[in-house]
Write the structure tokens for this entry.
Amino acid sequence: MAERKISCTGIKPTGTPHIGNYFGAMLPAIKLSREYDARYFIADYHALNSLKDPAILKQYTYEVAAAWLACGLDPDRSLIYRQSSVPGTFELTTILLCFTPKGLMNRAHAYKALVAGNEETGHDPDDGVNMGLFTYPILMAADILQFDSDVVPVGRDQAQHLEMTIDIAEYFNKNYNQELLKIPRPLIQSNVETIPGLDGRKMSKSYDNYIPLFCESKQLRKMIMKIVTNSQTVEEPKNPDDCNIFALYRLFAEPDEISALAQRYRTGGMGWGEAKQALYEVAERIIAPLRDKYQQILSDKAEIDKILDDGSRRAQEIVSAKLRFLRHHIGI
Ligand code: TRP
């Protein structure tokens, strides 16, 4: 069998997975893992920048791991591990720090937004900026470059970080006149922006407009009933292409169901309550078995630890070999 290409991504454990995460990030990355040699990890040290409560960080780490396993990531075929358990990543970060111009980090969106906010409110520009945030893209570059990753599936919000990874790898390679670090290719998941939350904006933890992926079925229905709609009457024909309910419906439903519901929209005579009920039914059909699996996995944390520890051990082996190679070339 030909060597599989390597796919790498990090999952920041900063919240309970929601429907936007599922369709925007998890499902595409899990699909990729069937064809690629997938190396996926829980980016707990990236999360530490913003999440300083130990119990919550720990809980989210388990939830995220259980979610990916429940949704079909196969730990025998793919690597799934905790970022913090692979010390080699942090050694590579130290190496890459020496090749990263400070000016490159000054341009990072997240950092720039914080500084701009401080300036607007008359605060010191450095207020609330820790070095973990400032060097975030360098740790992320190490995550990716340690594996000679071919592709990195991420949302559009991570595009700049990927460009920075490529820049850093190129500075490094240029210094040694050889491609010691493989240049990865970003796979930007562009449908993420089109998954609307309850208020119609992109579904996101930061907008607090999300539907948790694994809430109980009653809660799921309740959340769906909260989706904001316009004030068209039952009789009026409606436009499926301009409707948050329909945008979510098409993610869960089969093609014939999608065209049938679109037809009902256009004909009129269907109220929003009915459209929401239809959405609930197709969503529950997909989510119910995943939820059962998720709860079962989450109920055995020792088993999750075992899976993550095994992944970390295999990851560290790969990373150690890469570090031996790099140390040799840099004269350390
Ligand atoms: N920064 C990513 C996010 O916020 C998470 C992440 C960390 C990541 N390391 C990575 C993604 C490496 C892809 C590759 O979601």
Summary: The CA atoms of residues 89 and 143 lie 6 Å apart.
